[in-house]
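Entry 14. Two folds queued back to back today. First construct below, sequence then structure tokens.
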Amino acid sequence: MENDLKDLIIYLYNAIHYEINKINNYNINNNIDLPGELALFRSQYYSNNSSFIIDTFFFEQQSTIRCLNCNFSHISYNINNIIIFYLEKVRMYISDKSPCGFFSISLENCFENYEDEELLYGQNQIYCSNCMLQSDAYRSNKILTGPEVMTISLVREGLDVNFEYPLVLNLGKYIKTKCKEDFRYELIGIISLLKEYGKTGHFIATCKSPVDCQWYCYNDTVISKCDDPLKEDYEDKYLVPYVLFYQKCKMN
């Protein structure tokens, strides 16, 4: 069910972009030192893609895989519209860092785990084109550009753990750019699973209105004002967040 939700959001972003895509002279913000591969990637991608969806939801990523046999680094670039955090993976990451245990997972833990090096070994070994051998490797990720709206998917895979996320999120230390841009984001939407104990539940949305800046809960056909978007209880049920939407704060 959670994978269906994540896949639906990705499909909608891509489908809307496909319908409104207009090829034009895209204004590329060259706010980092561009290696040849990134300049080529940008040239190829943006020469064929330009739309409101690209401007609003998409961001650039860099993935680095370092072969432990020859220490050669394979760097690739990608543009995406959603960042996916696997909470079981984050839980293991926290457990390794804090052997005394933990009581919750925070959104900051997720971003730290995302950019930290991950060891690929065993069945996850890579084939290195430099030394031409199957090898253990380290993989790390970087976010290169900050979207107008950051869409975050939380894949729980049955993991029932308390998850902490803020109303205002500072992504400055996770977006690898040399510009002086403000990367503070405010929470504007949450898709949660509304559950009763022992039952599967169904998804509802809690969104901040751009008109009156009030929060509203959308539960099927019922719309009600929400005083606290971070609350975990709803009537006699409880909420489990699965997708978070953060919008870049407007400059004063």
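Second construct, same run, same settings:
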Amino acid sequence: MPSLRYTHAALDAVLELVSKETILIEDVESIEVRVVPVTAQILIHPNPRSALEGKFSMEFCIATAILRKQVKLESFTDENVLNGGTQDMMKKVKMVADPKLEGSESPTVLKIRLKNGKEYSKQVNRPKGNPDVPMSRNEFLAKYRDCARRVLSADAANRVLDMIENMESVTNLRKLGDLLIGYN
């Protein structure tokens, strides 16, 4: 995720719920995100006004995940933060610092309440990407390509990946450097 790590467990929870359940945007009444207190101290922008503030906003990250069913680098734009639909959804998100969650796992508990009273809840103890919750190869490659495409051609990104994955056979690191700065 391109936001602060403190949002990742909640994002994993909401993205899993929206992928498994039929949750229509217009049916969402509220979203509660229970977090360890330090998370609430770091995510200091409940009503962000810029892309940078959005990275420090649980409300924006969750609203974006619900609305777009994904969170990528391109989600973090001033335009997306200020979008009326995003602003409306952010108002439904409440982050709650819960000292009872302190401990070795430091879980995040996310609850989505629908207007009809139905609730969906998910607890994530450690976000995807932790050593004990690794990304799949496909997830890793998708993330790499999403990041790399902003600065490298698809061909250069693939060549960089190939060189890195086969580093033991690379005889000249300058070729890798040249690819990364756009010389080849």
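Quick look at the second one. The longest strand covers residues 28-35. The chain has two domains: 5-124, 137-180.
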